[in-house]
Amino acid sequence: MTELGWIIVALVPFISCAAGQTEAHYEWTTLDWLKAHNASHELHNVTTADGYQLQLQRLPRPGARAVLLVHGLLGSSLGWVCLGPAKSLAFQLHQLQYDVWLANLRGAYPHGRQHIELTDVMDEFWSFSFHEHGAYDLPAIIDHMAEVTGSEQQSGEADREAPTRQVLLIGHSQAFNAFLVLCSLHPRFNQRIQLMQALAPLSRLHRQVRFDAAQVRSLMKFVKKRQKSSKFELFPPGYLRKLCQRKHEQCEYYTKQYAGSAKSNKKLLEAFNYEHLLQGGSAREIKHLQQIWKSGDFIAYDYGPMQNMKIYNGVEALRYNLSRISVPTILYFGETDAIATPEGVHAIYAQMMNSVRSVKRIESPKFNHFDFLVAGEVKTLVNDKLIELMEKFLEGKLSYIIE
Ligand SMILES: *[C@@H]1O[C@H](CO)[C@@H](O)[C@H](O)[C@H]1NC(C)=O
Ligand SMILES: *[C@@H]1O[C@H](CO)[C@@H](O)[C@H](O)[C@H]1NC(C)=O
Ligand SMILES: *[C@@H]1O[C@H](CO)[C@@H](O)[C@H](O)[C@H]1NC(C)=O
C-alpha cells in the first residue's frame, strides 16, 4: 500500500459526517449539528491535570443514567452526531432518556485544542498518544461528570429513582486503548464505569491487522516527514479534501479497503468536499501504535532507554497491567475489519476473560473499521444492538455469548 493508502486509512473516520448533507454543512462542528437539530445541549469545559482544556458536549437528562461517548484516533465528538437524529448514536440515546455526554480528547478539532499555556502550533502541545487520553483526559472528564450529576441530585432536580454516579462508556477504536490505560493506571475508575462497550477495539495490534511491515514503514516515513518540517499536527483541516481532489481514484480505492459496503462508500466519497473532516492527530499517537505493533505487547510509550529510566524507572517502557481491569466489557467487531480484525478482538477477549461479558459480531458479511461510524445501516446494525445489550446488562440479563 502506498503512502496515500495509509493516509486514507487514518482519515476515514472523519468522513462520517457527509451523509446527505449539502455544501453548507461542509464546515459544521459538533455544535453546529446540535444547533441545527435544535437539540438541547450544554457545553462543559474541563481542564486536565496537565493543562489541556477540553470541551464536552452534553445532551442533558439530569438524574438519568449517564453515557459517555469517546471517539477514536483522529476523530472527535462529531462522529456521534453527524448522521443526524435519525441515525446517530448520541441523538438515539438521548431520545431513549439517557443523559448523553460527548468527549473531545486532546488534539480533537476544534474542541480539544486549548491549553492553559500551550497553543496547537507548538511541538509540546502534540506530545501525546492514547496514553495521555487515558491517563489525563478521561479522568478529568469522568470526574467532572460526577461532580455535575452529583450536584444535580443534591439540588433535587432529579426525580427519577436513585441513579448512580457511575458512567456507561462507549468507545470506538483507539478509545479502548485509552480506557485500558485509565483503568490500569487509576484503578478507582473500575468502580466508576458501570459498563464499557468497545466498537472495533484496538489495544494490541501485533499480527492482528491486515497490513504488513512495509505499510507501517511507509506510514512512519510520512509521520517523520511531517515532523521534520515542524508540522506536528498530522492531518490538519482541509488536508483530505485537497489530497482527494488531486488523486481522486486512489482516494476512492483506499477508502473502499477500509470502509465496508457499497452503500457507505457512496457517502464516503461525497465527504471529500469537507474542509474539517480531519480533526487532528499527533505523530506520537501513530508512533505509539507502531511500538505496540512491533512489540506485540500493550506497552506505554517507549522513549528510549535513558528517558524510560527517568519516567518508568526501568530501561523498558511500562507494561500496562491489564489484570487491574475489572469493568464489565462488551466487544464488537466487524467481519471484514482491516484494523480491529476478528482475530484481534478475540485475542483481547483471551487476555481479559475476567471482564469481557460478551463478544458480538456485527451481523453483516462485510463490516469494516469505519463502518461503525459511517455505514448507512449503522442504526440497525450497531446502535440498536448496542442499546439492547446495554439494557439487558442493566437488568442483569446479559447472556454470555462469544461470537
Ligand atoms: C429548529 O428550530 C427553528 C426555529 O424554531 C426551525 O425553523 C427549524 O425548522 C428547526 N429545525 C429542526 C431540524 O427541527
Ligand atoms: C468554555 O471555554 C470557551 C472557550 O475556551 C469559552 O468561550 C466558554 O465561555 C467556556 N464555557 C464555560 C461554561 O466556562
Ligand atoms: C497487576 O495487578 C494485579 C491486580 O492488582 C496485581 O496482583 C499484580 O501484582 C500486578 N502485576 C504487576 C506486574 O504489577
From TrEMBL:
The active site is at 173 (nucleophile), 337 (charge relay system), 369 (charge relay system). GO terms for biological process: lipid catabolic process. Keywords: Glycoprotein, Hydrolase, Lipid degradation, Lipid metabolism, Signal. Residues 34-82 form the Partial AB-hydrolase lipase domain. GO terms for molecular function: hydrolase activity, acting on ester bonds. Residues 1-24 form the signal peptide. Pfam families: Abhydro_lipase. The keyword Lipid metabolism applies. It comes from the Eukaryota. Belongs to the AB hydrolase superfamily. Lipase family. This is Lipase.
